[in-house]
Amino acid sequence: MYTASYPGHDSHITKQNRLKQLVMIANILLVLLSACLLFSCKYCIESAVQEPGPERIIFTAELGPVSFPHRSHQQQLKNGCIQCHHKGSEIDHHCRNCHKRKIETKEGDAVAFFDVKMNLCRGCHQQLRDNETSTRAPIHCNECHDVKKINWSKP
After folding, report:
1. Tens digit of pLDDT for each residue in 80-129?
2. Is residue 2 part of a domain?
3. Which stretches within the chain are classed as H helix?
4. Cβ(145)–Cβ(66) under 8 Å?
5. First to last CA, the chain
6. How many other C-beta atoms are found inside a 10 Å radius of the C-beta of residue 42?
7. Which of 18, 36, 51 is the last residue of a domain?
């Protein structure tokens, strides 16, 4: 079979083929990158499950310190670390590395730490009470904060 050829015709087909090849390569790279990210996040979470972290974490707060029972939360959530450690990468870091105090938070920053605690922690506890799954989940200020240890000397 004879195909007619004229100037510029072959280069157009070659450009189309090259574009298709680039799109295919980009898609393959995207799939590989996604797999790498998924694996690395899974690795972070699995390493946290193997090393349960501290028994308790003390959070300082203006309303008084909070003694957070980390290990018991891990057990109750069946090592569902991702429920609190939403990125996986902050397992070895403190929440406040990204979530600052309300007065320090600027536009474009991560949500303020106070809002995280009130929405995530208190929100989960409230849901447990609403669903009658738990009557002990603390939802009132003095149930988490040791208000006797408020630092009244701060301005």
Report:
1. 777 777 766 555 567 777 788 777 878 888 888 888 888 888 888 999 99
2. no
3. 9-50, 70-76, 113-116, 122-130, 141-144
4. yes
5. 90
6. 12
7. 51
Domains held by the chain: number: 2
Instruction: Mark whether 47 and 62 lie in a shared domain.
Output: no
Q: Is residue 63 part of a domain?
A: yes
| CA pair distance 50, 67, nearest whole angstrom | 23
pTM score above 0.85: no
Q: Do the beta carbons of residue 144 and residue 60 sit within 8 Å?
A: no
How many residues are recorded in the chain? 155
In a domain, 4, yes or no: no
pLDDT single digits (tens) 24-59: 888 788 777 776 666 555 545 454 455 667 899 888
- Joined together, the tokens standing for residue 63 give 């309303």
- Domain of residue 120, residue span: 57-149
d(Cα 19, Cα 23) in Å, to the nearest integer?
Answer: 6
